[in-house]
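Weekly puzzle thread! Below is a chain. First person to post its structure in token form gets bragging rights.
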Amino acid sequence: MSKTVLVLVETVDDYLPLLEQAGYRLIRAPSPQLRADAIARHAGEIDAVLTRGPLGLTASEIDQLLQLQIICVIGAGYEQVDLAAAAARGITVTNGAGANAGAVADHAMALLLALVRDIPRADASTRRGEWNRVISPSVSGKRLGIIGLGAVGQAIARRAAQGFDMNVSYHSRTPRTDQPYTWYDSPLHLADAVDFLVVATPGGNGTRHLVDGQVLEALGTEGYLVNIARASVVDTQALVAALQQGLIAGAALDVFDDEPAVPDALKALGNTVLTPHVAGQSPEAARDTVTLVLRNLQAFFNGQPVLTPVRA
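Winning reply:
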């Protein structure tokens, strides 16, 4: 008998036929209203849920889905999935760790280059018929710090070290003995030692505001921040203040606290580059993400261990 998957995501539609071809019945519900309606109408039929970190799945929704056995999260983050409620029901949770790491790392480097080299303003002024040849800092040979050295952090580190001859350091809860980069015991100490600071750690309570006013001050007036992880890792108010006061040179952000809303204060600043949470999106990443979901579903329903389990 085929299994029914409630699909809450809206970013991998082109590759969802991979699931249908494998025999899964999909109920697509990419908006809050469709989501509520689908759960109300099909609560007793849904075996699996496909979601992403910010969309999550609440304890109330888990309680309503009486047949739910597995929750598959695309991307590495799963901050809005109620893991305790899932664990209480014995529901398996997986994530998409590593599936879109290449795309996210590419975007992180693109943001860094655009920010430091002032590409958006140069482009805009040239289109206006101006010829402002502003001198911008180099990127190559600088010191890069990464908060979080999972699949995405490692992909960024490789690009920085091998492609731009950067000295790479990182902060994580414990040192990664399998990696050649320098470990720092806190975001504060890391920020004080680098020119560029990239946030690549999952969201959630454990990482909330790891980058606060003190960290930004340590990064310094010639330092740049890039966040392609979760907005919650950075104290947005402190970041706006640091940018306005010139405590750091600039920030490039792909994530925001209340998406799709972006604070007017950030949009008004000339030392920011802002993109609409697209770092992990590419045809290749979407294909690989859905393929990983399929492999996790197939393993689970065949009684085998899932590939990327998330534990409460």
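Puzzle host: Confirmed. Bonus trivia for everyone else. The longest strand covers residues 48-52.
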